[in-house]
Amino acid sequence: MFYYIEGTLVLTEPNAAILDNNGIAYRLAISANTLSSIAPQKGNKIRLYTYLVVKEDALELIGFKDVEELAAFKMLITVSGIGAKSALSVLSFMSPEKFALAVITGDTKAISKAQGIGAKTAARVVLELKDKISKELSADGGDVIDFGAPSSNNKLSDAQNVLLVWGYSRAEVANVLRGIDITNMEVEDIIKAALKKFGG
Q: What average pLDDT does range 1-28 have in this prediction?
């Protein structure tokens, strides 16, 4: 229904943001990560990407600071037993980059640390999403980009897979990663550096 809403941030609450767009105030449920990102911009014009949750008795608009967080949310709610509230809980605890990395590497402990997410649910998240991500990556074709040093390949492989999940093509990812000096960088830092180059 809405792709994003752009307006003046008039108020933030623990789990929500209110945007004024041409005299109409929209209340959007948000994650803690989005809240910490937008809170300093109160009174300024901001953009939140949106997802509309349709319930039997209500409509709830959810806002995300960027398309990566929106993509992670959409992946999470496809998992049986994960609703919008649980998905936001996961994204409040970890960034989209850390979440995608946890799924790809099978780190259920990290996911289960989110409020309201138990070990069984975290295992289900990894089981269902890792399979979907693997199918997407194998359908895209090709192996991990080889930049030489074997010790670097694991980091590059994980970073590459996360970026492919966000919808970037293998060629785009290869070009961007070749321009990043990953010597002393963790996987999450590599992903963030790549997203900056993509303009994300």
A: 93
Looking at residue 148, what is its pLDDT?
40
- Residues 17, 63 contacting (CB under 8 angstroms): yes
Sign of CA dihedral 101, 106, 112, 117: positive
Cα 60 to Cα 11, 74, 88, 100, distances in angstroms = 17, 15, 13, 25
Angle, CA 81 vertex, CA 80 and CA 84 arms, to 5°? 105
With b for 16 or more beta-carbon neighbours within 10 A and e for fewer, the 48-87 pattern comes to: bbbbeeeeeeeeebbbbbbebbbbbbebbbebeebebebb
Q: What is the DSSP string of 119-177?
A: HHHHHHHHHHHHHHHHHHHHHH-------S-HHHHHHHHHHHHHHHHTT--HHHHHHHH
Closest CA to 162 of 182, 144, 180: 144
73-99 pLDDT, tens per residue?
Answer: 998 999 988 999 999 999 999 988 888
pLDDT (0 to 100) of residue 37: 93
pLDDT digits (tens, 9 = 90+) for 141-181: 444 444 343 345 577 777 887 787 777 788 888 888 887 88
Contact between 46 and 7 (Cβ < 8 Å): yes
- Sign of the dihedral defined by the CA atoms of residues 79, 91, 15, 22, in that order: negative
